[in-house]
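Note to self: keep these together.
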Amino acid sequence: MSRDTDVLVLGGAGVDTIVYVPELPLPYADSYMIDSGIRTRAGQTGDFVAVGLSSLGLRTHHVDFLGDDPEGDLVRALHREHGIALTAIPQPAGTKRAVNLVGPDGRRLSLYDTSRGYAEDRLPEGTVRALADASRHAHVSITQPCAHALPTLRAAGVTLSTDLHNWDGENPYHESFAYAADVVFLSTAALDDPVRTMRRIAERGRAEVVVATAGAEGAHLLTDGELSHVPPVRPAAPVVDSNGAGDAFAAAFLYGRLTSEPPHRCALYGAVAGAHACTVPSTQTAPMGRDELLERASAFEGS
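Structure:
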């Protein structure tokens, strides 16, 4: 069977409105003057992973619901600009959207519009199966209704990855993703005991690798039952925005995995790409390319 796509990305297509605020949490006031402007741009988690993978030279295909609206047009244009194949399933409720409040230190608060979909939404099984049959790997966003596509992806025989983002280790919604994927990413932000959660994912599911990112503290890597620390990589420019750092980490890690690198080097790639993402304002899309990734990774190893 021909596998003409390296990575199929499911879900996570939408737009964000970016607002740079003077501080977070933002104290109550009747109004704030935003001198930097308020901008809406395409790019949620699936979009950023797809763009990151494509920029690293991987053949990428993205499938999700999109509305026939200006927000959907922004998402379509982003994919055209980066040469990423897109299968857009019509969504009468409109394209997913969010508002990101970004503080001076790069931290963000995201407000998600959950009205842009329905509980009964399903990605068409035949479409998912055909795309999966043509792919080496599938990265599954935790957006509705991607959980329902997991059995179809498994039946197609592709390896799977997912990003649980700021899972607290308890919310049952995330469990189907956590226990179905071969590679699981998550943040330590909401975890009281990251290591315990990582081990539970590996024990209850099929994950060969679990990675818990911890921002400026680096990341934790669990593979073959062995836990190790991934040191942070110093960004090459000032940190301006953490938005998209986790997606960049996941894309670069998967690049390493799909080019047969060992898990620790995959994690280094992730750390390098995540650090780069923190230097790019949310209003821009400037992923790291393959040559720059390899150069910076080699420089870090030699330092």
